[in-house]
Amino acid sequence: MKNMKLSFLISFLCCLLSVAVYSQNARFSQIGTAPIQMNPSLAGRFDGKIRLSMLYSSQESKIAEMQHQNISLDAKFGKYKSSGDENVLKVSDLPGNNKKIKEGKDEVFKKSRVLGYWGAGFNYYHYGNSKSPLDATFLSATIARHFYNKSNKIYGFGLQATYAQCKLDENKGTAYDREISGDGFRYPYLTGPASRVGSNNYMDFNVGGYYGMVTDAVMFELGGAMHHLFYPRNDPRAIDNETQLRHRITAQSLLRLKLDSRWGIIQKNVYWQEGLYYRSRKLNGDSAEIVAFWAGLEFYKVNPPKDVNFNFGFFTRSFRTLMPYFNINITKKANLRYSYELPINSKKFTAYTAKRSEVALILTYMRYTNPGTRFYKKLNFW
Asked: First CA to last CA across the chain, in angstroms?
């Protein structure tokens, strides 16, 4: 009971580690379902060899609607902690010792000769609507390097290149709300006729890193990323050369706590800030800083006896929305997720009016265990 109270206290304190927020960026409710988009170093951070993730988000505010689709494929390369009880690693450096040490995929074990591995990923992201004046598509390629430090620590770095393109057609309509857009291109125009047509594209570059450690009692991970390294020009008609994307930073933390033999808890935080200058405090109308803080708890059955398991969670965006979250694991191959986000008080917090319904399907090849099995040994919870 004492450990359980301490676990909840730590989780509550983590939820309070936020700053004052005064606006938000849309993106997804299920940020953890698109980890490569949040931090390039998370490519390959999963239990398995290959992972395919598909996310659909339907978002609606008081003045507009928007649909989002995100598809990512990432894989591991090189030697990593990949074999389970069916495969073993020989210990040849100990004289007279012919024993073998069992390896657990992405888990803690005492002796390891595997020092790290490579991860690579591709991500497709699109947002648009039949009545929206702006549609945008983002194609990203990511490479990451992961290192094992001693027996229970892991850290890594990632680099990402993104090709972005958009189409502007105000003849479709002018119902556009930045709260539910995917951003990346500047809109709306505040003056002039509502009949503009155009297109634009640019290359973007992003970097990120993380550090994690796990013990039986607790596991934590800290990470951060910076996007738009070279200020790409983001005017939809490619006319205004002064309109540029400023840096975006994200910082994430993850805390896994041991409750009891039946349930385990994971607490996640993501801090997101747009519109930063690296060397200047200058702000233009298109680069106003946008800040959001995303936090919540996930509850998992520990060592579930069945192949199909139901888990759940609760999240919030800047403590001004509610997000119930449901997670169904089907054997070790498939994971189905659903979430619904609704504002708490949109009259008071006028920047938080959107309702988001999201469904995701994640397919994994060569996964070692389902999420609840060996729950207190795992390093990967994204």
From this structure: 28
The identity of residue 138, as a single letter, is F
Question: What values do phi and psi take at 152, rounded to 5?
Answer: -135, 20
The closest alpha carbon to 191, from 167, 168, 174, belongs to 174
Interatomic CA distance for residues 127 and 228, integer angstroms: 19
Residues β-bridged to residue 102: 88
- Helix, strand or coil for residue 133? coil
Q: For residue 45, which of 151, 122, 111, 144 has the smallest C-alpha distance?
A: 144
Residue 2: is it exposed, middle or buried by C-beta count within 10 angstroms (0-12/13-18/19+)? exposed
Compute CA 274 distance to the chain's CA centroid, rounded to the nearest angstrom: 16
pLDDT class of 286 with cuts at 50, 70, 90? very low
Among residues 221, 313, 228, which one has the least CA distance to residue 270?
Answer: 221
Beta carbons within 8 Å of 253's beta carbon, 6+ residues apart: 14, 17, 220, 221, 222, 223, 268, 269
**Residue that is written with structure tokens 């998370």 in the block:** 42
What's the number of CA atoms in the CB half-sphere (13 Å) around residue 216?
4
**pTM of the full structure:** 0.84
- Which has the closest alpha carbon to 313: 25, 95, 15? 15
